[in-house]
Design a protein that fits this description.
about 325 residues; alpha/beta; 2 domains; 9-stranded mixed sheet
């Protein structure tokens, strides 16, 4: 009797491949949908200061939120209509599925670009470079990773920070008494405050925000001994090349356009003071608003980070952008 199983398997695989291809072809891109509906769904974090967080007035604010505002203005030029922004808050642990499933059209917060995430999503070019470091209570004699032996350390679930922390523990680089996993950065900071952990690991930028929000910031210290680099990108559904190209060209536009060319728009964002420096680009002004030397969340731009920003600039995006890429 002939064995038809191999042929059956090949036949089913072929049907599945055609089905998936048809689905991909038939699925509208975000820009096409926005042109039809006039609505874009922007995913935002509620506690990722200074990139995206809810302020004391209950407003969603931050570096990435300002960039989202500008992105939508340029997208309106592309689609030729006014766009309503639907902000959708999400937890850090759910960021990948909400983008992959189309619950949100683009995530604009503080997500690290990693290979596993890139397997199921698309990222913009990196707009920020952070590192996984840790915060401790001041005056307790913890000044380096070596001081964490026998201590309780913590990090947030489903983050690159936790993965990096577990890796250095597995390699024996630090030997803590326990690794505590929390659901949010706010809970991680509360655990540090109440002495349930001795050190809390996350991105430098996010620790800066947590410390700035503390009642007594001087009670805490950020130890800048890095265990992992964290390049941030904005996340989109996989294979939507029109949206990805638009976002990357937008990022180039902010890095190469002088403040003076967008004074009306930047005035709406309260950024005119930053634009008094004639050498500032739009990106520079928004960065300084949230992370400049006069802010509570000051994060100096390192030479490595500045080189990264220069390296991602797309040459000759053309005078026709944003109406065309």
């Amino acid at each position: 009797m002939k064995n038809y199983k191999p042929l059956l398997v090949l036949f089913l695989v072929g049907i599945l491949s055609v089905s998936l291809a048809t689905t991909a072809i038939g699925q509208k891109g975000v820009i096409e949908k926005v042109k039809e509906t006039g609505v874009i769904k922007v995913g935002c974090r509620e506690a990722a200061r200074p990139f995206a967080y809810v302020n004391e007035k209950g407003d969603m604010v931050g570096f990435s939120q300002d960039m989202a505002f500008l992105l939508v203005e340029k997208l309106e030029e592309r689609v030729g209509r006014e766009i309503k922004v639907k902000q959708i808050p999400f937890a850090g642990a759910s960021r990948v599925p909400v983008v992959a499933q189309g619950t949100i059209d683009i995530e604009m917060g503080s997500s690290t670009w990693t290979a596993p995430r890139d397997d199921v999503l698309d990222f913009s070019l990196p707009f920020f470079l952070s590192e996984t470091v840790f915060m401790v209570r001041a005056g307790e004699g913890i000044d380096s990773l070596d001081d964490l032996d026998g201590k309780i350390v913590g990090s947030m679930r489903a983050t690159t920070n936790l993965k990096s922390l577990q890796a250095v523990v597995d390699r024996g680089e630090i030997n803590p008494r326990n690794v505590v996993v929390v659901e949010t950065h706010a809970r991680g900071f509360q655990a540090l405050k109440t002495k349930k952990v001795d050190a809390y690991f996350t991105d430098t930028s996010l620790l800066t925000g947590l410390k700035a929000e503390a009642k007594n910031p001087e009670d805490y210290k950020i130890v800048l001994e890095s265990i992992h680099k964290e390049p941030y990108g904005w996340m989109m559904r996989e294979n939507d090349s029109e949206l990805r190209d638009f976002v990357n060209n937008f990022l180039t536009w902010t890095l190469t356009t002088d403040c003076s060319e967008e004074l009306d728009t930047l005035s709406e964002l309260g950024i005119l003071d930053e634009c008094e420096d004639s050498s500032f680009t739009i990106f520079d002004a928004i960065y300084d608003k949230w992370m400049g030397p006069d802010t509570a969340t000051s994060i100096p731009r390192t030479p490595v980070y500045n080189h990264l920003l220069q390296g991602i600039i797309i040459p000759d995006i053309g005078e026709v952008w944003p109406t065309k890429d």
